[in-house]
Amino acid sequence: MTIKDIARLAGVSVSTVSRVLNNHPDVSQDAVKKVMAIVNKYNYIPNTSARNLGMSSSDNIGVIMRGISNPFYTKIITAIGDKIEKSGYTMVMQQISTDEDELRVAAMMEKDKRLQGLILLGGHLNYTKEQVSSIGVPFVCCTFSNEYGNLNSDQYSSVCIDDEATAFSAVEQLYKKGHKKIAVLLSAVDDGSVSQVRYAGYKRALKDFNIPEDDNLIIQIHSFNIADAYHEMSKWLDKGIDFSALFCISDNMAMGAMKALRDAKKIVPDDVAVIAIDGIEASEYTNPVLSTLCQPMEHIGIKAVDVLVDIINNEGQHQHLTLPTTLREGETLR
Amino acid sequence: MTIKDIARLAGVSVSTVSRVLNNHPDVSQDAVKKVMAIVNKYNYIPNTSARNLGMSSSDNIGVIMRGISNPFYTKIITAIGDKIEKSGYTMVMQQISTDEDELRVAAMMEKDKRLQGLILLGGHLNYTKEQVSSIGVPFVCCTFSNEYGNLNSDQYSSVCIDDEATAFSAVEQLYKKGHKKIAVLLSAVDDGSVSQVRYAGYKRALKDFNIPEDDNLIIQIHSFNIADAYHEMSKWLDKGIDFSALFCISDNMAMGAMKALRDAKKIVPDDVAVIAIDGIEASEYTNPVLSTLCQPMEHIGIKAVDVLVDIINNEGQHQHLTLPTTLREGETLR
DNA sequence: AACGTTACTGGAAACGTTTCCGGAACAAAT
DNA sequence: ATTTGTTCCGGAAACGTTTCCAGTAACGTT
């Protein structure tokens, strides 16, 4: 069943069918009716390959992400996938490992799958101008702060929270409860990732509250992995360093850390207060319930697609959205 | 940069370039060398739309899933996506809501995206023959038991655990610890879903161990949702029904239930023993650590793609794989 | 009555591949 | 010397759309 068959059955030309199917203006009501009748009767769906070839484009939007393993991303992905579908595009997902260069992958993918646009999830900030311009379709970065990039901001869009300020406010919560010996559990500190930016917020908070920085209170792992967090935290606790509160840069890591604290017989929140950032569902069901600053995950996903689709349709400029976080008061603060 | 340009630059015909690119036999070493030199030099990637149109097929494999929100699925999806990519196909993901008919979506998607094959995640068993044959590409169902379907088994493939036996063995664990009053937290019981099958395993266990069934010990919700599990469990606990153990048909639900138990001042495992099925990462970090029967999630994903690709390439028959589960001894049994 | 608009239509080229088919070049067998 | 077969190659049709362009019919204007 091709457009030709439809044309024949409806008694019109191929061009007319095409026009009807694409809502072109220059077509009579009569023709629309005839064509649609046949289309519906035979449940005709145009061939995407032929259509894309004809228009020399596609309806693919690529989504590249590093580490879907962090449950934080699944909510965002869900929202993105949903919204892409609703907008009439097709989502093409590509996962990359931690050591792959996402922009190289993006460039390849763009050629290979003829993308209309790209969404990058959980990436870095220190792309060079050349790297960015090497990819020829509009793209939007999700979930890492705008202000810290070194790029011309009109070359891409971004949708995220203010990671620095959120980290600051997490530490502030601890400070307000009287904590001064605040340890931080983080990932890399120099790769332009969220980890680095949240760490910056932590440091600014310490400074503002006149708490001296102490390298002994920095617990660094090399992933956002829950198991890594658990092991590294356990090792650190063995050192017996004195502290009264722990700021984890992600919920996932906090869950690992809390198990380590439990193993070490530290009671949360009596012995150690804990706060984190993200607001994943699981962390609402830990014992005790984790206190955390929640990201508006669905909203992030939806907005990312919105912005991208607008740009694809030439209905908008690149923009940089910063969405608000909300405090979830759990049971890990005292 | 099209195949014509490559042909011109390499000094051969378009057909020859195509043959080289597709590893056809009838082409000289000399030609291969000349073409590949140009292809590599200009980093040429063939246009997928044109190629698909020419071959009247595509390289798309569809993945349909209900409720990616359950973290259990993310591991599987990750594995599936990875494997699809490695096999040279493109993953096209479609999420559906609980009330959508997955086979209708499958049929639509197949036409729309010209799929080569389909993977269905977390579906039902009671498809009719007509429904199944309405979708014209091979498909494999993941994560629900084979034996309970009412279909001709050579019409599709499946990869999953033995849900009935696993549920049986979960209840067996509780029985071996001396429990007789075993409540069960489940989802639907009559829709052909995993829930129904796991419930069947629970009932068989009771029977084998000479424990009378008791409707009061059945806690039913209408999703696999963690929040729903929490609320429904709380409501049930209010009734004050006597019980000593709880079998949850999924880890996710168990996490909700454990919070409800905590709210009700029931100590796990002293007052109530808990066991579940799935083995998601988060449930390894609950307090206390959940005891559960783990599914080989990565393995399931990889096998599903393996089987499907073999069938697409006419290198295999439809088959039904049942993968083993392993007990993770947590801290919720006594 | 001639002309310009307007509203719509159909023919056909174009998109970038794959693949069928016929043929060239050459070697081996008769 | 002719046939037969092998190996490789190029031309061109085909895939199913979109879209440009030319054209027709109806209608209002001068």
From TrEMBL, chains A, B:
Source organism's superkingdom? Bacteria
Q: Which InterPro entries match?
A: Cro/C1-type_HTH, HTH_LacI, LacI/GalR-like_sensor, Lambda_DNA-bd_dom_sf, Peripla_BP_I
One Pfam family of this chain: Peripla_BP_3
Quick check: keyword Magnesium in the entry?
Answer: no
- Which UniProt keywords are listed? DNA-binding, Transcription, Transcription regulation
> Do you know which SUPFAM superfamilies this protein is assigned to?
lambda repressor-like DNA-binding domains (SSF47413), Periplasmic binding protein-like I (SSF53822)
The record, for PROSITE patterns, names: HTH_CROC1 (PS50943), HTH_LACI_1 (PS00356), HTH_LACI_2 (PS50932)
- Transcription regulation is among the record's keywords: yes
Entry protein name: LacI family transcriptional regulator
User: What organism does this protein naturally occur in?
Assistant: Pseudobutyrivibrio xylanivorans
